[in-house]
Amino acid sequence: MKKSLFYIFMALVCAACLLAGCRKDKSGPSGNGDIGTALDNAGSANCYIVSDAGKYSFSAVKGNGKKPIGNIASVEVLWETFGTDTAPQPGDLIAEVSYDEAKNAVCFATAAEFSKGNALIGAKDARGKILWSWHIWMTDIPEDQEYLNGAGTMMDRNLGATSATPGDVGALGLLYQWGRKDPFMGASDIAEGATIQAASTIGTWPEPVVSDEAKGTIDYAVSNPVTFILENENNHDWYYTGSKETDNTRWKSSKTIYDPCPPGYRVPDGGYNGYDGFWAKAFGENRNFKDEGGFDSANKGFNFGSSGKGNAKLSNSASTCWYPAAGTRLASDGSMQAVGISGFYWASSIYYGAGLCLQVGKTDYISLGAVSYCASALAVRCMKEQ
After folding, report:
1. Nearest residue to 93 (alpha-carbon basis) of 200, 227, 204
2. 296: part of which helix (H) or strand (E)?
3. What is the pLDDT of residue 269?
């Protein structure tokens, strides 16, 4: 009789769990056959876009390469965020995640009610070391925008942004250290001088560490995707070389396994005056310049589309081509700076040991050849591969 009551009780518990939509971070291979919609049919990457509720999967490989990441013992959601000042509850974006060993696939299911935001899924070995991680970008499908002068095609929003609307905090997106594939939180507000990062399921993020022989390596960065690596005094990079020289192969003109963009896109080239800069070509400029009255002080950014306030245009076919002043995280301490004042957009190019970037700011100034220490975290706008 007691055994019967026990089995009835366990059945009721299981039924309640199913009705509540319990989140499952599977600690071992599943191999259950139903792996959902494959996100990597157009190629593998470190980031995948999801725009509807459902079940999904992707191959457990390094970026856009084919090499498996190692012996996976477990997969789990490392963090989730709406990109606002409201923290999600675990499972609000991704309700379930598992690993299918037979197919070498990471499988996950969104919450029944789809929410826009971002999440990071990590795969671990038997000792708990993170072998690789993937960014799940949950947003409406970004639009492609043709830029002027045959420069190419860009997404209509920052990487990790859930909106392309001027003045929307969701348009800020995520921030990246140069050459790292994993994102960090952007600001929780568009207000000038905002310093609080977007809320996430990580209550307290790890303290930043200083780059050295042990912590300034690819292996450390891959194994610690939520740890900000501060600059070292030699080259002001998170990547430690022991000298003033830096490594310029982490991001390149041809997509690398550390590129943070989704399949079919990459970090664009930058600079001017001899550099094949994407923005310089589109603007038709080979210098830094001012676009008088171009900065939208109410919405904190530039609209470089046909309806923009200034004369500088990146696209005439798009009414709105929004570049928010998303700010930066400093290489020295990881703090948020210049939100609502300046926007910094990484290029894949290196100039004398620093990363080239596009800089736009509230003084109407546009710098096509700005540089930033590689340990800084800036926004990324993904370019369509040609």
Report:
1. 200
2. strand 295-296
3. 95
385 contacts: CB under 8 Å, gap ≥ 6? 255, 264, 265, 266
Name the token pair of 237. 């990079």
Q: E strands, 60-200, where?
A: 74-81, 94-100, 105-110, 117-124, 130-138, 144-146, 153-155, 176-177
CA within 13 Å, CB half, 296: 24
Q: How far is the CA of 135 from the CAs of 8, 132, 257, 262, in angstroms? A: 41, 10, 13, 9
Q: Taking the model in full, what pTM does it have? A: 0.92
The model's pLDDT over 258-269, given as tens digits with 9 standing for 90+, comes to 999 999 999 999
DSSP 142: P
Quick check: 306 and 318 in contact, CB under 8 A? yes
Return the pLDDT at 27: 42
Task: Quote the CA–CA distance of 142 and 158 in Å, as a whole number.
Answer: 10
> Quick check: helix, strand or coil at residue 161?
coil
Put residue 352 in one of left, alpha, beta given phi > 0 → left and psi -120 to 50 → alpha: left
